[in-house]
Please model this.
Amino acid sequence: MSLKTISKDGLSLSRACGLLFLFPLMIQVLLFALIYFYFTNELKQLTELQGRNSQSSLACLTKEYLGDPSGDAEQGDVLCLQFRWQLQQLIRKELLTISEDSSTSQDKRRNDSSGAREKLKQSAIQRVAAHLTGNRQMGSSFSRSSLLGRAPGSKISYWESSRRGHSFLHNVDVLDGELIISQTGYYYIYSQTYFRFQELEGRSVSTLSEERSKHPKQLVQYIYKVTSYPEPILLLKSVKTSCWSKDSEYGLYSIYQGGVFELRENERIFVSVSNEKLIDMDKEASFFGAFLIG
Model:
């Protein structure tokens, strides 16, 4: 075999090996190019579809559909209906949330306002009150005032109100034994008077017993209201008839009464009694008062 022949065979073998190496590489490059163009085209189509969907959504709101003229019109209508329905549901949900928040806020403000008014009302109720007590040091605590007119009884014209003992005044004035109402409302009015009998020295028990049996005492307590009406209006009346043992040295009786009445601003209330000479103005036993309850 000549040298020329060997050289030709070696060259052919190297070319064949080079082709075998380049062929797979060319196949890979071709596949990569195909894949690149495929995904690039898909991405472009997806972008265009999103743009058309955005335009279609806007068109649905303006009652215009900007889809592909060659596309299916019914499919476009369905998409518009779906989009509008979803948008309506979202708006309804947001409106309900806003309405609930507003209602909750209004209820809270209303409750806070009601609570504040109730506290203010309760505070006002507690401040309107009076309690007057008797005073033994006053020689004359009674008067037969022309104010009574034909009404029976003698008015108690003096009560202790200067915070001595248990007496007090809160937003109520007192004048000539009368409580002057400063605020219209319903009041609980009460009074107690203490009647005290004592035997006089130098008189026999038999004589006194006979007088008692012949002339029993009627003990009466009245509570009046003074309005624009010419005569006072009787609110409460309580009566007892004295009855005691023949051998007793003292006769002690107390009358208490109370009730709820509506009083208006500047109206006045007072207490009157029968047999005023028998009244003991002890501060713990004879008293008069009222307080606002609503």
